[in-house]
Amino acid sequence: MKNIPYGRQWVDASDIKEVVKVLKSDWLTQGPKIKEFEEALCTYTGAKYAVAVSNGTAALHISCLAADIKKDDEVITSPITFIASANSILYCGGKPVFADIQEDTVNIDPEEIKKEINPATRAVIPVHFAGHPCDLEEIKEIAERNKALIIEDASHALGAEYKGSKIGSCKYSDMTVFSFHPVKHITTGEGGAILTNQKNLYERLLLFRNHGITKDKKKMAGYDGPWYYEMQELGFNYRITDFQCALGISQLKKLKKYIERRRDLVSIYNKGLSEMDKIILPVERPYVKSSWHIYYIRLKDTTKRRFVFEELQKLGIGVQVHYIPVHLQPYYRKNFGYKPGDYPKAEDYYSSTITLPLYPKIINSEIRDVTNILKSCISRKL
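and the corresponding structure tokens:
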């Protein structure tokens, strides 16, 4: 019996040392490390501004708030994503509208966006599934023609590149959201960030992160003295801590190594599974560099998915399914009338997929073990 999880953080002695420094300092919460982390993210991605927050969902939520999404506004996103991508639209009173996926990348299909976009569309949230960037140039053209904003959900895609630009540069979008959950490319424990090149959005994001409060005299309606602050928006406590950001700064220095390692591991998977005619492997289009957050396969015989999944689990292989289509969740079916058959490509993908273990600390022989066990399970009869 093996014990190989599908994902795992890599926190080493240098990371711990940086966190301990902060724990021994005068700052634990809103101190200098937050700004340092934000500046490091900007340096890495090429964006002008970054706002670090408590988690990826918080990042999505205040991005939607900064985009001024309100009641009756529609926002288009992918049905193959974690529910936070769509829920963040609901938090603002907007309506999530889904556009079906591309069969090869599992990303939102620009041609399907064209079918769904209309004058009520306030924004589009493309999700860079598994770390493979969406077709951002096409999506930008569609959004601009319809005066819609673009919020990239790059929770899977820190370190990815699209046509030579880092995801997070916001070259093709108004905002980009990252997550720093432990299974992501770098971790702050829980944590997230929003990047943008627009100062007005940056200032709104700062307000929404901290209860809608400002201490900037230039922006205040009044001023009673140096203690004074004003609440100018209905914001939230989405603050991240200094010791989390110390971990993030340390982790970010290793991101290049982590991405290279993930890409090497994917090559081992591809080599070991390429001759199997019963599965479909993930792709990487020539104009992108995937950051390979996850490695998923699709079974051609969908009736075997549950059997193979459960057999792998029994043998200690930490498999997952990313994701159950959002429109099939009971809440969305009840409140928006979505039903099976609405997004056939997303549903076909869901019925066949299994996510295999992938993280930098896994060793090559474990990847080969997973490959061999998978082959054995697929070849077995039900």
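(Above: one complete record from the training split.) The CA atoms of residues 164 and 288 lie 8 Å apart.
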